[in-house]
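re the bet — no i am not wrong, look at it urself. input seq straight from the record:
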Amino acid sequence: MDRNALEQMLLYFKNGSTTLEETISRFKYLPYEDIEFAKIDHHRQLISGITEVVYGEGKRVTEVIEIARRLHSNSGRVLVTRTSEEVFKGLSIEGAQFYPESRIIMAGQPEKGIGHILVVSAGTADIGVAQEAALTASFLGSQCRTIFDIGVAGLHRVISNMHLFDEARVVVVVAGMEGALPSVIGGLTSKPIVAIPTSQGYGTNLGGLTPLFAMLNSCVPGIAVMNIDNGFGAGCLAHKINIIGLAPPI
């Protein structure tokens, strides 16, 4: 779609020939920005409710920087996952922050989120994945709170924080080792549970397969299980659940 076509669409809306909903539906199919090595979808949020996010792993530093800059230039916001301090320094975006534990760069986070997501980690070693989930949901517009290191080796730590589970609209539970924490918490609260298995653990953790299987086979019904170490995916799902009945995504 070129400038003339876009102006024509807006003029139709201005003079009442089309409704607001019809105009918005047309925007859903606007073309992406093609920069040869990437096709940047500036309008993805209109379609899926989740803005395009830059996945940093497997890309050249220069490629990540260019994609992130163009996204930020278009909307004033950008989220880069699985990235590095080298990328952060190269971006030079005012107001951007780098979170080394979760390997996230974020700029343009809403000042105040809505709803209430609680993100908990079983162990300190799981904090990076938990932060990835929390930062992703926060960037998308949800209010998040975190509790770290309340795994099943000391269940009194879960019980003492049950009031926080009661206040949340959705709970993200991150666990490695044998992956038991989502089942424990799922048996103590009626809130939706998004579980993330992590690759943290000794040999038979099998790089996260053991907690993944444990969560998939949980006796507690209604637990949604993400891929191993996928904090980003969990943050997106938790955000979509959280905003139901509250507001459309930012």
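see?? The chain has a mean pLDDT of 89. told u. also Residues 114-242 form a domain with the Rossmann fold fold (CATH 3.40.50.1970). so pay up
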